[in-house]
Design a protein that fits this description.
By secondary structure, the protein is mainly alpha-helical. The chain is built from six helices and three strands, in the order H-E-H-H-E-E-H-H-H. Strands 1-3-2 form a three-stranded antiparallel sheet. Helix 2 crosses helix 3. The two termini are about 15 Å apart.
C-alpha cells in the first residue's frame, strides 16, 4: 500500500465496509446512498481507489477487507510515529502524556502490551 492516508469521507466509507463485510457491492451502494448520499458510481469509484490502495478487495462483486480496521489504523499510527517522532515510540508517549494524563488502568494496560510485545521483531 503506497498511500495509507484516508480522508474523513473515505474513512467513513471504509468503516461501513468493515461493519458489513463481506458485502455485495450493490448492497454497499445502497448503504452509501443512505449514509453518505452517494450515487452508485461514486461508491464504485471510491471502492476502486481503496482496492488499489490494498485495503479492500472486490471479488465477483463481493467486497471484503485485505486489512482489518485494527491492522489499517495500526499501520497509520506506525507511519505517524515514524514521520512525527523519528520512529521513537517513547517520544510519542512522552508528548501524548504531557497533554493527557493516563489513568492507572491505562498505565497497567500499556505495561501489559509492552510485556506481551517483548522479544517480537516488528
Amino acid at each position: 500500500m503506497t498511500d495509507s492516508k484516508l480522508g474523513v469521507v473515505e474513512s467513513h466509507f471504509a468503516d461501513i465496509i468493515w461493519q458489513h463485510e463481506p458485502i455485495h457491492s450493490r448492497e454497499l451502494a445502497v448503504i452509501c446512498a443512505k449514509e453518505l448520499n452517494w450515487k452508485r458510481p461514486t461508491t464504485y469509484n471510491v471502492l476502486r481507489k481503496l482496492c488499489e490502495k490494498g485495503i479492500f478487495q472486490n471479488n465477483g462483486g463481493i467486497v471484503s477487507s485485505v486489512l482489518s480496521r485494527q491492522e489499517f489504523y495500526g499501520m497509520q499510527g506506525e507511519t505517524f510515529v515514524e514521520e512525527a517522532f523519528d520512529g521513537s515510540l517513547p517520544a510519542f508517549v512522552a508528548a501524548f502524556t504531557a497533554r493527557k494524563k493516563l489513568s492507572d488502568a491505562e498505565i497497567k494496560e500499556l505495561i501489559d502490551i509492552i510485556n506481551s510485545g517483548r522479544g517480537k521483531n516488528g
